[in-house]
Amino acid sequence: MKHDNDNGPRLLGRREAAAYCGIAESTFSMWVATMKMPRPIAGTRKWDKRAIDSRLDELSGLGTNDNEDPYEKWMRENAGSA
Fold it and tell me: Which residues contact 73 (CB under 8 A, 6 or more apart)?
């Protein structure tokens, strides 16, 4: 998948990752702490831009979760339609 911002570095520090998301650095830190954003790459203080994109896609309803149980997916998508 090609992303609009592929011309910059793939790994981002906290400040750059927050700016990439268009949010304050403190908000980005809170999102990481609450698992809304991925954690930095193990042993670094850098975030993978593609991991951020993937998480934002998921939060926006654009991503797919291949690990989701088909029954749970059906229940989630059809909740309240009975």
Answer: 65
